[in-house]
Design a protein that fits this description.
Layout lengths: L2 E6 L5 H15 L6 E6 L10 H10 L12 H6 L2 E4 L2 H10 L7 E3 H5 L2 H23 L6 H15 L11 H24 L2
Parallel strand pairs: 1-2, 1-3, 3-4
Helix pairs in contact: 1-2, 1-8, 2-8, 6-7
Bound molecules: O-phosphotyrosine.
InterPro entries: LMW_PTPase, Ptyr_pPase, Ptyr_pPase_sf, Tyr_phospatase_low_mol_wt
Pfam families: LMWPc
Protein name: Protein-tyrosine phosphatase
């Protein structure tokens, strides 16, 4: 996986932050020879990166990417791994480039180890069964059980990194932190595969 493409909507906020942060992480981790790019499914070529995204990258030591780029057939072909910020980006990219399906993932689902997700799914199923049984026996279901299911389902069904577009610097910082946490896992995965 030596050519990674991050994809978002406008390629001015999330995917450029992912690109810049990833370059820094790769350098810090000594992962040489991995190229990173970004693009947007609804981007125009040449729009400058958002001011807050640039500020966040600067304060994180991330390199500032070039201007925005629209997702193009040549970039998709170039990439060995395409990581999208949301499942909608993933669906769109697969629809447009069906031949690339095997290399398109949401960033979150790609870095989430299968066993961690599997453990969560098993817990949801066990809790659901317990609750159904309790309901059948007219026994009370605790608030704790209900809220645990909601938490697990939220974790499992939200493979999206929300758009900070138009938000405050703080929103960009928290978005960058969310992306950064995923990228640290991505770097570990890339290291392991070497
Ligand atoms: N809403 C913007 C497009 C846009 C959307 C999202 C966005 O954020 P990101 O770069 O993270 O997809 C940036 C730009 C417009 O109408 O021009």
């Amino acid at each position: 996986m030596n050519r990674i493409l991050f994809v978002c909507t406008g390629n001015t906020c999330r995917s450029p932050m992912a690109e810049g942060l990833m370059r820094k992480i790769l350098a810090d981790e000594g992962l040489a020879g991995i190229e990173v790019r970004s693009a947007g499914v609804a981007a125009q070529d040449g729009t400058p990166i958002s001011e807050h995204a640039a500020t966040v990258l600067k304060s994180n030591g991330g390199t500032r990417p070039q201007r925005s780029a629209a997702l193009s057939p040549s970039t998709v072909e170039w990439a060995e791994l395409i990581l999208t910020m949301t499942s909608a980006h993933k669906r769109y990219t697969i629809q447009r480039f069906p031949d690339a399906v095997d290399k398109i993932h949401t960033l979150k689902e790609y870095v989430e180890s299968d066993s961690a997700a599997a453990t969560k799914i098993a817990e949801v199923e066990r809790l659901m069964t317990d609750i159904q049984l309790k309901q059948a026996l007219a026994k009370p279901v605790t608030d704790e059980e209900r809220s645990r299911i909601v938490t697990l389902q939220r974790e499992l069904s939200t493979p999206d990194i929300a758009d900070p577009f138009g938000g405050s610097l703080q929103q960009y910082e928290s978005c960058a932190a969310e992306i950064h946490a995923c990228l640290i896992k991505l770097a570990a995965k890339l290291k392991e595969a070497r």
